[in-house]
Structure formats: C-alpha cells, structure tokens
C-alpha cells in the first residue's frame, strides 16, 4: 500500500507505531536470526550493486547541481569498491558477539537476593544523517544487532542511493523471517519529517544525528527525545618537540589528505616552537606540496606558500584540502588551544616522550585521544566494531565510536527465594 507522503505527521506517526511494534519483537530475537538477516542483506547489496550505482549517479548529479564541494561529493560517491566495503561492514557486524543479554555485573546481597545487570535494547532509534549513503547500511545493521528497530532519515543528496541500500536491508529481514518494519526509511526529502521525528518521544527512544554543525545544532535545540550528539570533527594534531620527524610527516599527511571529507580528518596543526624551523618547515612544505592550503599564524606565515590565518580558522571544520597551523611554546599551550577550539571528537599528539603523551591523555577529554597514529583511524570499523553509527562527542553512556554495544541500555534481573525485607 502506497503511503501518503503529503501528510507528514500522519506518515511519521505510522512509521513510529510500526517501529515500536517491531522493536517489541526484536528484543528477544535469537542472535542466529539477526546474523542471518545481516548476511542476507550483504548478499542482496552485492547482487544489487549495479542498481545502487545507478541510483548513486542520480544523487551525484543532484549534489553537483546543489554545489556540493569535491570533498562532500567524495562522501556521497559509491563505486564497486565502496559497495564491497558496505557488504564487508554488514558481514563484520553479523559476525560480532550479540550484545543483548550480556551480563555486565552479577552479585549476591546479604538479604539473599541474586542480582544481575544485563544489556537490553534501547527500543526504537531514529538516525538523521547527511550525505554518506553507507550510513544507511551501518546504522541499520548496528541497530538490528543490538535488538533495536530503527527509523532512517538520510540526507536529500543521498536519497536514491539510500533507498536502494535500504531495499537490500529489508530483503535481509524478509529472508530471516524478521519484521520488515524493523528497519524503516523515511520515504521523502521533506524536512518536516525531521522536525516530526524530534518530537516523537512516544515512539522513538533516542535520536542519533550524523552530519554537520547545522544539523546537529538543530537536533539538539529541538529534540524532545534523548540525543547521542555527533558534533563536528575539529581534529587537532600537536607535534611535540620529541616527535619523530619522518613519522610525523607521514602521520600528518595521512591524517589530512587520505580523505578530507570525513570527521577524523585533521583540521588544525599545533607545532612546538622548538622544532618549528626544522620539523615544522618540513611538515608545512609537505602539506603544501600535496595541495593543502595552510592557514598559518604569524610564526607559520614565515614559510613560503602559507596564507594568513584569521580567528575563524581556529575551530573550523574544513572537510577539504585546508588546514590551520600554529606554533605553540609548550604542550600546555597546545592543550589550552584544543580545549578552547576543539569539539571533543579526536585529538592527537606526535611524540616519543611518554610523559608528554601521558599529560596530553590526562588533561584532555576528547572522546578519542591518539598518540603517533593518523586521526583517520577515528572510526568504529578501525576500532574493531565492524561499523559505527557515528562518533558521539557528548558524555552520555555512548561516547566515541557508537557500535552495537553502545546502542543498548541495561536492566536489573533480581531473583530471590521467597525473600522478604525486614
């Protein structure tokens, strides 16, 4: 039956009711059944790869017409290699241990009570995301693995690609005998659907926004449903005076240029003044040679090819071939800068000094802190989670890469033997 796409409140109420009913069934589905659904979905994605790529061509044309940057178009683009990655992600989630029912703690009380704290699904999750169509598969898979129903609202740019991928997820559910309403997609580009989702606290248990500052800010301001916030990736790399020169150049280039449009891409480089004229010069030169525009403070502007940084360059998520760069007198100045301008997403120190690394880890509270490794590893798949629904930068129980285990809550199971309280 065709849904009426003109009546957004009625459309979303129907989707929410169906998701809530599906979630009640999913809460006790066997791990083997969920695994079968995800593997069947992976098969369906690969079989439909030509159709998915054709749908993506439509989205790419739409994105170009909207004036998306090259980096944003790269986030949107799908080819066979990336579709293989989607399939691999689905299979990786399928192969993970099922988090539902895991005993987190267990103890006996003097009263005679035996108490267990066990993982339980959150219920219905609403995921609101922008360009990247692979989020459709990642979010659908992780929510299902954790026993949750999910309502997916992708960006207008990825409308056709997300629809084609969603159809494959539904095929996987059907093959495993699970309710097709377990993974639903909002079938309209109308932004009113987003506003409606944010008020559906009777059917949605948590909202996960994945996108730019505008989207996340809107969700945080207007949501009546709890939010796992995925804020900007204003990623800093601090190059300490004890950094290994070759490793520093390799890591910084990878962190900035491997893929500029992802949230783990480096956006600001802080260089210890003691090594500015040596290692700093090499780093800035290497970035410029790669085609990166370096926005430098007064000290960094001494290097050829650097453009002056403005106040707007500090704390900016470029998602493009740009980086801000600044000289700092010591690690504490670097930490102070990150505290002021960072987004608590991912920050990195390059150093061979264990004490400096310990200080950096101790005094910053980003969701992910790294040492001597590219910030492009800020990814649930690279953390062994198979996939992620986003990087949560808040301080709720889900923080950093949000995988299946983070999409659960817990409940207490209490057993006695006619036990009475005195």
In DSSP terms (H or I, runs of 4 or more residues), the helix count works out at 13
- Strands, total number: 16
Helical amount among residues, as a percent range? 40-55%
Total domains: 2
Strand content: 15-25%
How many angstroms does the end-to-end distance come to?
Answer: 59 Å
User: Could you please say which CATH topology of the largest domain applies here?
Assistant: Aldehyde Dehydrogenase, Chain A, domain 1
Question: CATH superfamily of the largest domain, called what?
Answer: Aldehyde Dehydrogenase, Chain A, domain 1
The side-by-side strand order for the widest beta sheet comes to 10-9-11-8-7-12-13
Mean pLDDT value: 94
Question: What would you report as the Rg, rounded to the nearest angstrom?
Answer: 23 Å
Secondary-structure class: alpha/beta
Q: What characteristic shape results from the CA principal axes?
A: globular
Major β-sheet profile = 7 strands, parallel
CATH class of the largest domain equals: Alpha Beta
Unreliably modeled segments? none
What is the CATH architecture term of the largest domain?
A: 3-Layer(aba) Sandwich
